[in-house]
Amino acid sequence: MHFPGRFAEQVLPEQIHRLSLSFLVDDLQVRRGGIGANIAFGMGVLGCNPVLVGAAGKDFDDYRSWLERHGVDCRGVHISETAQTARFVCTTDEDMSQIASFYAGAMAESRQIEIKPIVDQVGELDLVMISPDDPDAMIRHAQECRQRGYTFAVDPSQQLARMNGEQVREFLVGAKYLFSNDYEWELLLKKTGWTEAEVLDKVGMRITTLGEKGAEIIDRKGPVVHVTAVPELAKADPTGVGDAFRAGFLAGLSHGLDLERAAQLGSYIAVLVLETMGPQEWTFDAAEAVTRISGAFGPEAAQDIAAILPS
């Protein structure tokens, strides 16, 4: 939903202890989403073979068809007998600030999912990306990855508010990549009680998105890569922009790009989502991608990335 005003102008600091607000919105859009599905969709569009793992309701059939048409393997999706698919309800104001609520629904059953039977069915996995989900499921999947030797990445993001410090610490250990935005990174440090060096002693590297400032990749030795954001043509809706960056970044790595080029591809896919209403409503055109990547990062970057783009 869109609120044609500014949330900041509606909040009275002296009354924050009894906050009660209602916003008359001027638009309602119902879109497909979900972090795992958004990332898998983007990777599918970019020619990878993502396997979506999670729990959905019996209302998933239409969504399954959509994802499969865009290259996503949905054999890892558990269907609940009792709950609806999770819902994210978000209102965005004129400053692109957001107030949102999340209904977990069938997502709570994702803790019942084991990764190995999916691997047995679909074949060897390059990387298990554990995105925000039921916290118990996130921790269980990280534990299984460590036990079975699966390479994995962690992205606590929105669930940082729900998870306590002990849960976050257990979730991170052994991950090859840690994804977050800059605000979530600071919250993660506060929740865990660890320093940046202590976090990087537990994970391979962190990939932190910085909004309009781009993204940075840092490992134990210090900064590895900083990429700027691709200049936007418009700002339609920020929902799913971080998921899009992850999709482009992981697709780039999957296709053999180095970290910098993969992050640049992630930056481009992110801006496509920013310019579109809905996290899966964007379309991809290879020629346009090369032109805009060249303008943002130079012709050499465009040439390298063009080599792996689907035609």
Q: Could you explain the architecture of this structure?
A:
Helices cover about 40% and strands about 15% of the residues. The strands form three sheets. Strands 5-6-7-8-9-10 form a six-stranded mixed beta sheet. A two-stranded parallel sheet has the order 1-2. Strands 3-4 form a two-stranded antiparallel sheet. It is globular and about 50 Å long. β8 and β9 form a beta hairpin. The chain is built from eleven helices and ten strands. The protein is α/β, with parallel strands linked by helices and about 300 residues long.
Give a brief outline of the structure.
This protein is an alpha/beta fold and 311 residues long.
Labels describing this entry:
single chain; 311 residues; alpha/beta; 6-stranded mixed beta sheet; 11 helices; 17% strand; globular
Q: Please trace the helix and strand order, writing H or E for each element.
A: HEHEEEHEHEHEHHEEEHHHH
Number of helices: 11
**Helix coverage percent:** 25-40%
Work out the radius of gyration: 19 Å
Q: Into which percentage range does the β-strand content fall?
A: 15-25%
Spatial arrangement of strands, main beta sheet: 5-6-7-8-9-10
Query: How widely separated are the two ends?
Result: 34 Å
